[in-house]
Specification:
Number of domains: 1
Strand content: under 5%
Number of helices: 2
Number of strands: 0
Distance between the termini: 88 Å
Largest sheet: none
Shape: rod-shaped
Helix content: over 70%
């Protein structure tokens, strides 16, 4: 009887806030992954530019 009285449609009172928190955590994780990929790509571009500059400087020194 206690469970029947304290639930609606099979949901506990704490299920809805827990679901909201879960959705928020998933959204934050997705945003983090997207930003991390962008930073990695920028770093790789910067690294390749620096390596190209270093190679060009070595060619001019020879």
């Amino acid at each position: 009887m206690y469970e029947f009285v304290h639930t609606k449609l099979g949901f506990c009172f704490w299920d809805i806030p827990a679901l909201i928190v879960l959705i928020a955590i998933i959204a934050i994780f997705v945003v983090h992954v997207i930003r991390q990929k962008r930073r990695e790509n920028e770093f790789e571009d910067e690294l390749s530019d620096k390596m190209a500059q270093k190679a060009a400087a070595e060619k001019t020194n020879q």
